Automatic annotation (TrEMBL):
Entry's family note: Belongs to the GTP cyclohydrolase I family.
Enzymatic reactions: GTP + H2O = 7,8-dihydroneopterin 3'-triphosphate + formate + H(+)
Binding partners and assembly: Homopolymer.
One Gene Ontology term, aspect cellular component: cytoplasm
Protein name: GTP cyclohydrolase 1
Record GO terms (molecular function): GTP binding; GTP cyclohydrolase I activity; zinc ion binding
Transferase found in the keyword field: no
Documented EC number(s): 3.5.4.16
């Protein structure tokens, strides 16, 4: 990430909106914003699949669900944040599971990039399915988008829900309903 270019762009933005980037309150703003973007978009430096490398044996495990995982990302259309919770379920195949925190780490790594909520949902599901032998994966994300709540239609509190179902979850609506019921419990 080129922080110098980000700082210059923010300085130009301040001038473009009619501000004086040299006034006391704004002198360090370009540097602060560059540092913030480096933090909020750190996902470009991460490899989510690495969290799937260490696997454990768990015989007869039927379903794994980690729910209410907080996440945040940046909308690629408006460069505004969106945030919410994710729910990740999978049915292990070959009696192998990963540490529960690894599911949250995958969501975090993928969400720290400019993108759409739909992309995060699909990418999380495929990262798990591609790197762990599973019968199925089901990912549900719920988020509030600042591009809807503080601009445009100004609908604060509106929630967007996306899902990705692979394998047995795509084929079995009863299994999806069971997981959705567990999420709401």
């Amino acid at each position: 990430m080129d922080k110098v270019k980000i700082e210059q762009a923010i300085r130009d933005l301040l001038i473009g909106i009619g501000e004086d980037p040299d006034r006391e309150g704004l002198q360090e703003t370009p540097k602060r914003v560059a540092k913030m973007y480096a933090e909020l978009l750190d996902g470009y430096q991460r490899t989510p699949a690495q969290h799937m490398e260490k696997q454990f044996t768990a015989e007869d495990s039927e379903l794994v669900l980690v729910k209410d995982i907080p996440f945040h990302s940046m909308c690629e259309h408006h460069l505004l944040p969106f945030y919410g919770v994710g729910h990740i379920a999978y049915v292990p195949g070959a009696d192998k599971v990963v540490g529960l925190s690894k599911l949250a780490r995958i969501l975090e790594d993928i969400s720290l990039r400019l993108q759409l909520q739909e992309q995060i949902t699909t990418e999380v599901a495929h990262t798990i399915a591609d790197n762990l032998e599973v019968e199925g994966v089901f990912v549900v994300l719920e988020a509030e988008h600042m591009c809807m709540s503080i601009r445009g239609v100004h609908k604060e509190g509106a929630s967007t829900v996306t899902k990705s179902a692979l394998g047995c979850f795509k084929e079995n609506s009863e299994l999806r309903k069971e997981v959705l019921s567990m999420i709401r419990a």
